[in-house]
Amino acid sequence: MNLGNNIIAVNQSKEMTDLLFNLDFKIMTAKDCIHCIRDTIRYLPDLIVADLESPHLNGMSMARILNTLMIRTPIILTAPDMKFRKHALSFENVLGFIQHPPKGVTFPKDKMREDLESIIFDIEKIDPESVEYAYSFRQREWANLLGKSGKKKILVIEDDKTVKTGMMRLLDSTREYDLYGAEDGLEGIFKALLIEPDLVLTDISMPNLDGLAMCQIFNILNKPFPVVFITTMDYKEIPQKAIKAQGVLGLIKKSILQEKQNFFAQISFFLDQTDAVKSTWADIEKDKPGDTSA
Would you call 146 exposed, middle or buried from its count of C-beta atoms within 10 A (0-12, 13-18, 19+)? Predict the structure, then answer.
């Protein structure tokens, strides 16, 4: 790794931040691992240095989520106790562990610097996997995202392109919504974090990441977006954990797409329910400390 590359530092002590700065890294700070995931998706840093005990989401959970999302940014985890080292290093994208002093305790800076430089040297020798998850915004989607029209934002996630196109054309015919599309759960997560949709319409069975796993990751990220499953299955065929997942409002049968007015009525019904979900989300965000991202 060449010095000067971009690093996201999560919940790090002044000693560690100063050390990274003195090594000429370009540092972005994130107040917790949730914000780190969002910034990693946006900026694709070269390295993440995160405290294992970050609030809201710990460093190992963050590593697991980034690995699931096929984001291969190397991670160094820090903690005041070495007992976590073996577990932390079991994650393939965690390439190092550094012990830092508990608050109020003096700790040799030379040892931290030596550990950090040793890990960075090892990272330089690694031939990184060229695995990236491709996703893109169509021109109209960018226009919707930047235009702030005041319309409700709906994200449609469906791996069958014919079904997805048909659903989006139906919704577009109302001229009431800003629409976004994704073809599986991975792309859906990326777009949802950037768009913050008012409603997510998603299939359950999809490649790479299915609808249920996507909902679970939303909840890990404290982002229980309002989700409605679009499916050919009946309620009794769907796992109860899917129906009961936080943020899931219910389901719409795909056959209803043939009944245009009925479909519109269902969409309006579920959008009317999103206020309660968004209120819960707002309470979560309000309870968090102020953002220190730079």
Answer: exposed
| Nearest residue to 216 (alpha-carbon basis) of 241, 239, 194, 196 | 241
Residue 17 in tokens:
């931040």
Which structure tokens are listed for 67? Answer: 């690995």
- The rounded distance, in Å, linking the Cα atoms of 29 and 283 is 24
Place of tokens 């070269």: 46
List, in order of start, the domains of the chain with CATH numbers.
6-125 (3.40.50.2300), 139-286 (3.40.50.2300)
SS3 content of the chain, % helix, strand, coil (to 5): 45, 20, 35
- CA dist., res. 177 & res. 173, Å (int): 9
End-to-end CA distance of the chain: 22
Angstrom CA distances, 5 to 30, 45, 126, stand at 17, 8, 16
Cα distances from 96 to residues 27, 48, 168, in angstroms, run 18, 11, 45
Q: What is the pLDDT along the chain (294 residues), one digit of tens a residue?
A: 444 578 999 988 888 888 888 877 889 999 888 889 888 877 888 899 999 888 778 899 899 888 877 788 899 999 988 888 998 899 889 989 998 777 666 666 788 888 888 888 766 555 555 445 555 666 667 666 666 678 899 999 999 999 999 999 999 999 999 999 998 888 898 889 888 899 999 998 888 788 888 888 888 777 889 999 998 876 666 666 566 667 888 888 888 889 999 999 999 999 988 876 666 655 655 655 544 443
Strands (E) across 240-288 are located at: 248-253
Under a CB-based contact definition with an 8 Å cutoff, are residues 98 and 76 in contact? yes
